[in-house]
Write a structure and sequence with these properties.
Blueprint lengths: L2 H17 L5 E2 L8 E3 L2 E3 L13 E3 L4 H4 L1 E4 L8 E3 L2 E3 L13 E3 L4 H4 L2 E3 L8 E4 L3 E5 L4 E8 L6 E7 L13 H4 L2 E4 L6 E6 L8 E9 L6 E2 L4 E6 L2 E3 L10 E6 L10 E5 L2 E2 L5 E2 L2 E4 L8 E7 L10 E3 L8 H24 L1
Parallel strand pairs: 1-5, 11-18
Antiparallel strand pairs: 2-3, 4-5, 6-7, 8-9, 10-12, 12-15, 13-16, 14-15, 16-17, 16-18, 19-20, 20-24, 21-22, 21-25, 23-24, 25-26
Amino acid sequence: MTAAATHTSLLILMMIKVSMVIVGTVSGEPCVFPFLFKDKEYRDCTTAGRTDGKFWCATTYNYNLDINWRYCGLPCRFPFHYNGYDYYSCTTNGRTDDKLWCANTYNYDQDKQWSLCEKRPWSWMVSYTLHDICVLNGSSVEMSCSYTYPSHLTMQKAYWINSYSDGAPDVSQVSEYKKRVMVNCEDKADNCTLRIQPVDHRDERSYYCRITTNVEKENRIGPHGVKLSVTDLKVVTPRRVKEGDNVTLTCNTTCNLTSSPSFIWSKDGRPVEKKQIINNQLQLHPVSYEDEGSYTCAVRGHDGLPSPPYRLIIMSVEPHPVIIVLVGVAVCGVVGLLCVLYWLR
């Protein structure tokens, strides 16, 4: 046996030891999709033929003939658990360089297996900037998704839908949205944004990014989507307020506003002093009769969308003296009348 033949035999034996089935030459060339392995075409990386669970692809169309292949790397695992939360798409949390990453197993905290979510020529990825958004009724909202797709596909369209269904229409073409939405999903871009203005309670639902390609079976809807909640403002305070009490007025919402806004307060249509506003609450410490009036709160920057007015009424600590006198006169009058009737008998 020649030295070259011996080397080839050793290489094949080494490959058999690694994969048990997949043999041939590990190539630095990019994946080719589709590729033929045994009697089946593959349009994405696969673990077929391997016993170690690692993903691979062929670097020529016919693996059976050329036996050239490469590893694809470990895929993302969704959802994955990191630092107390479940993530359904790649995230930048925990990094200082703003690069997207994912875990390769469910429990990152335990296994510490991860990879960057770089644009891989063989993989699909649809992720959202935020999965939960809470906005003020009457204001605006913007949702964003980013995506990558296998290089063997041609993207046809990216758009937003409000139902996790392949048959759901593009929201920009739905009559109830048509005059209120702006969409930026340019062809060949890698992101898609949806803006709704003004927002109302009818818009509360989940929204999804959908990508269509030249292969119908390769279309994708980004899972889990963006859940939109819409809130009104309401002033709340203790029901009974007496002169001298420490009273705090709170601008209440039904969900936590995503923008973490600051609030402004008005009394009888005029702004209140800033020194009275602490942690977005209006504090009247202590409250006096001069504080009686109609109060509203609003999100700073959305002054035209205030809460309904709340009428603050201050109760007296003691009964009014005039009321005491009148009650005394009435009691004395009744007693005197009874005395006269007794003597007449």
